[in-house]
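Deliverable D4.2, example record:
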Amino acid sequence: MAAQTPSGEGPSLAISPRESSLCNGISPWLSPVAMVVTIDLALQGYFGDLTVLGREHLPRKGAVLLAPTHRARWDALMLPWAAGRRVTGRDCRFMVTADEMKGLQGWFLHRLGCFPVNQGRPTLASLRFSMELLACGQQLVMFPEGRIRREDAPIRLHQGLARLALLAASKGVDVPVVPVGIAYGHADPRPGDGAALCFAPPLRARGQGREAALAFSAGLAAAMESAEQAARAVVGRPIGSP
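Output generated by the structure prediction step:
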């Protein structure tokens, strides 16, 4: 499995057959370039203050699923900035929709450790590859809302992340699921805005079947909303404000 993403400069390992069926692994030359361009120049150049809350809740080793709120395209840079190789010594592997893996953007994502997943109906290949990564102690990122949501409304999650967490637990793989709240100074982030990210205490999936998935998703949604409230307070835009 590859060991490098936009968030770091670690050594590159061989791509597994299952990985090669979904993406191109992580390019050892493109990844460090992308990290400088996206995080050092774009993210830190666009925003004013960048704040991380609850970093003590982020596991530094072993499998972990990051479950962030999805408020802007900047979210995909906030996660590597707050939890990537420079911070934790390991990479963020993003699970994204198939549409995101098309065109020029898809060309880059294919080479930066991202791979497609249908959260409503995950394919066997994507589930198996996700399990392969978790069994190897990787750090996966899935936006369980499935889309960018700028309006203030109750958080509603697809069941893909819950199913993956329950599957991992059934296979004996301990996977903490870390709820993440991300916030910006405006619903549509503007240059100079503050941006904040809050890690909440990890959750663990238990049980089997649809009811267990629904119960876990409900608890995860509540934790994500609480984390987002904390992040929104930092940027001076509490829930319910414009």
